[in-house]
From TrEMBL:
Gene3D superfamilies: 3.40.630.30. It comes from the Bacteria. This is N-acetyltransferase domain-containing protein. One of its GO terms (molecular function) is acyltransferase activity, transferring groups other than amino-acyl groups. Pfam families: Acetyltransf_1. Residues 3-163 form the N-acetyltransferase domain. InterPro entries: Acyl_CoA_acyltransferase, GNAT_dom. It comes from Cognatilysobacter bugurensis.
Length: 203
């Protein structure tokens, strides 16, 4: 069956937490409080379903976020306009089945309407060559390294230019057309969207 990527639902947070904490050393552990904070603030928090089962999730924020990650801060000190992938997790039994690529395609289709670059990191402690290769085939390149002060973990800092953004921004600015496929930043419990809360404007 096909992969379905959609916004997370509140009742799925326990399942998302279990996926995160079963992912191994390539992903930092979470507790429910931290995950709920993402649910309440992250402008992109989507899950993947395959055969009716939750198979992964991706969380992303824009450069205006108040996100407290040291890796996010590293990017914000050096770049002014980017969409940051905080974490992507795919269930071990589904790795290699296209879920990761479906997530990145969906995240890029969202980000390139609003940001000039995508940013993420890959931990270098451990056997992460397959993860680096995956990102390389998707157009990311290393722009530096960062040692996370909270864990001592070294990460390769990766960026990808979103070439469509310049034309989209020049043509539409902040007034993106209200088309069904131009997905707006997610809302939580009827609140204002993430971008509206951060910048006072709607996309």
């Amino acid at each position: 069956m096909s992969i379905v990527v959609r916004d997370v639902r509140e009742h799925e947070l326990d399942s998302v937490l279990a996926l995160n904490n079963a992912a191994g050393p390539a992903i930092l552990p979470l507790d429910l409080t931290r995950l709920r904070a993402f649910y309440e603030s992250a402008e992109y928090f989507r899950v993947a379903e395959r055969d009716g089962n939750l198979t992964g999730f991706l969380i992303g924020v824009g450069h205006a976020s108040q996100h407290d990650s040291s890796n996010f801060s590293w990017f914000r000190e050096r770049y002014s306009n980017f969409f940051y992938i905080d974490r992507i997790v795919v269930a071990s039994r589904r790795r290699g089945g296209g879920v990761g690529r479906a997530f990145y395609a969906d995240a890029q289709s969202y980000a390139e309407l609003r940001y000039s670059q995508m940013a993420c990191e890959v931990f270098l402690d451990g056997a992460n060559d397959p993860v680096l290769l995956f990102h390389g085939t998707f157009g990311f390149h290393e722009v530096g390294q960062n040692v996370m002060p909270e864990t001592g973990t070294r990460a390769a800092m990766l960026m990808k230019d979103l070439e469509s953004y310049a034309w989209i921004n020049e043509t539409y600015g902040d007034a993106l057309p209200r088309l069904p496929w131009v997905r707006r930043p997610r809302t939580v419990a009827g609140s204002a969207s993430y971008l509206e809360k951060q910048t006072g404007t709607a996309p």
